[in-house]
Amino acid sequence: MTPARAGRxxxxxxxxxxxxxxxxxxxxxxxxPDVRALKTTNPSTTAxxxxxAREASAAARTPRHLQRWTRYARIxxxxxxxxxxxxxxxxxxxxxxxxxQLQESIGIDWTRGRFVRGASTITQQLAKNLYxxxxxxxxxxxxxxxxARRLEAELKKARIxxxxxxxxxxxxxxxxxxxxxxxxxxxxxxxxxxxxxALLAGAIINPRLLNPARPSTxxxxxxxLILRRMGAVTPPEEQTHFAR
Length: 244
Known about the structure:
The structure is a single chain. The chain folds into two domains: about 1-30; about 30-244, Biosynthetic peptidoglycan transglycosylase-like (Penicillin binding protein transpeptidase fold, Orthogonal Bundle). Helix 3 packs parallel to helix 9, helix 3 crosses helix 10 and helix 5 crosses helix 6 (about 140-155). It has a two-stranded parallel sheet with strand order 1-2. It is mainly α. Helix content is about 60%, strand content about 0%.
């Protein structure tokens, strides 16, 4: 191949990159869900709930589904604070995407050559739970970012947090703060204190592995970290009592 011909191939490839990028963005944008109904209507199901139901059916198990919707005002302030400290401390400041954390995440993923680090805000996590999948596909991540911005544009922050706390997974078939509170602590989400709240918040990172009913060393360490951030460190024996 002559240098001139090789140069033309390189030029065509360079010109194709922005075209492909635009096509992917356009596809992601045009196939987005309409989030406006969430202003006044609670979702009856989510993409993650349906995924877990399919997984249970594939394993010949009856899908378990425990969920009790509770209003934002009826969720313990300690739980709200613990979840924000554990998952998204800048929630009230950003517009759906924490650009600083996202840049750091992209840098780490680029260095490792694969998508590893999440750095998702609570709004992004809500977008993923409601409409998407757990995959780390770049197009899926792009859709998540765009949906997160739409959620922030259409909904108040408190409504986004209310939705999140009612639909996220907190164990096998356990969805939302009210169901988790009743299963693990036999109390309402409105009655949770710092210790229980930090334990629940610590389990969000891997709710199918970290069980607040039988907290592992890893979960107890996360609980203590969250409690320190809350300014409410508690003796180990008291943690054990509340974790049962």
